[in-house]
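queue> pop job 88
queue> type: inverse folding (structure -> sequence)
queue> payload:
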């Protein structure tokens, strides 16, 4: 693979990863430990750490999230982070102890579902715009080549753009499917 082709793929892969990250921040009807574990929490020293560094995280079949904290002083910060994440968790304070925090997973209402699907589509458009921008940058890089080389590279760039747009659309469809189940 040519270095220019690698550069094009890296740029588009970065766009796709940003899109994945944006989608993961939109709640769905399923508990995602990956999303929860990677929530940034400000610890007692004022440092941002991932939740998985501050606690053990489990789920139950009843759609409960159980967080066993390593330091009970971090409970308020963890509570605030999870509630403010807008991922659909409600604190179950009657079940909490000094080491464990319980959250229930609230079902998505019809109105919320529509709003979330709209948000997914907005994020998809942002992702497609990023891919178009990456395509434009790649086209700028081949301007100084011969006409034949430009045509060859333009075909490759268009092929890669189409490939990454399809990946983006597939991710969008899966997220929307997860919201409509």
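queue> result:
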């Amino acid at each position: 693979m040519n270095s220019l082709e690698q550069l094009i793929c890296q740029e588009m892969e970065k766009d796709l990863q940003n899109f994945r990250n944006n989608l993961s921040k939109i709640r769905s009807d399923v508990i995602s430990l990956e999303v929860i574990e990677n929530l940034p929490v400000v610890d007692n020293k004022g440092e941002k750490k991932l939740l998985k560094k501050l606690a053990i995280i489990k789920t139950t079949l009843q759609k409960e999230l159980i967080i066993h904290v390593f330091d009970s002083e971090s409970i308020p910060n963890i509570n605030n982070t999870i509630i403010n994440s807008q991922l659909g968790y409600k604190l179950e304070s009657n079940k909490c102890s000094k080491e464990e925090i319980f959250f229930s997973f609230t079902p998505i209402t019809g109105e919320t579902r529509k709003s979330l699907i709209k948000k997914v589509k907005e994020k998809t458009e942002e992702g497609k715009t990023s891919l178009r921008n990456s395509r434009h940058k790649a086209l700028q890089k081949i301007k100084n080549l011969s006409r034949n080389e430009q045509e060859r590279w333009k075909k490759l760039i268009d092929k890669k753009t189409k490939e990454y747009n399809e990946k983006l659309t597939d991710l969008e469809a899966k997220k929307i499917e997860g919201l409509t189940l």
